[in-house]
Amino acid sequence: MTTQTRPALLFVLPWELHHVGGVNQVVINLLYQTERRGGHHPLLMINSWEDKKIEEREVRGRSAFYFRLRSLEEGSTRLKDYAAFLLTLPFALLTLRRLIEDRDIRVVNLHYPELAALPFALLKRLGLFRGKLILSFHGMDFQDARKATGLKKILWRLLLKSSDAIVACS
Fold first, then answer.
1. CA distances for 15 relative to 149, 150, 163, angstroms
2. In this predicted model, what pLDDT tens digit does every residue of 29-50 receive, in sequence order?
3. Does any domain span residue 64?
4. Domain count within the chain
5. Segment 123-146, tens digit of pLDDT
6. 132, 133, 121: which is closest to 93 by C-alpha?
7. Where in the sequence is the domain holding 17, given as residue range(s)?
8. Full-model pTM
């Protein structure tokens, strides 16, 4: 792990940053401009199903963290899915809290957010993350939140109300 002297801004994506264009290009530009401005040290997190614990790898010449942020899939109503989400939540909270402390993360900016972003909102609600939480929507990704019912609607509401800013990119 590298030593950093500036507070960090963590950009979170639900997929790998392989392709140029679209949301990926927005995040690549934000990483570059954040570094260029010098106020915050830009970090990247990829929601990776394969990584049950945080793994640090190099992506496009910079450090990226890979970690499984479990979500409730759209359309899923199985009790097993809800149980898995709830049972893994404490581990996710502890892991993310440790990363936030270790890297002095002051801002978390989730792009194309889904309910996998909920641990960040819960850390904020519990007073374990005092930084800023930004949700950046790109096009049709807000439809999951709009169409949610039952528990998912409650969780989306919690996520949205916990954010400090909501950005509509397109």
1. 25, 27, 21
2. 888 888 888 888 999 999 999 9
3. yes
4. 1
5. 999 999 999 999 999 877 778 788
6. 121
7. 8-168
8. 0.89
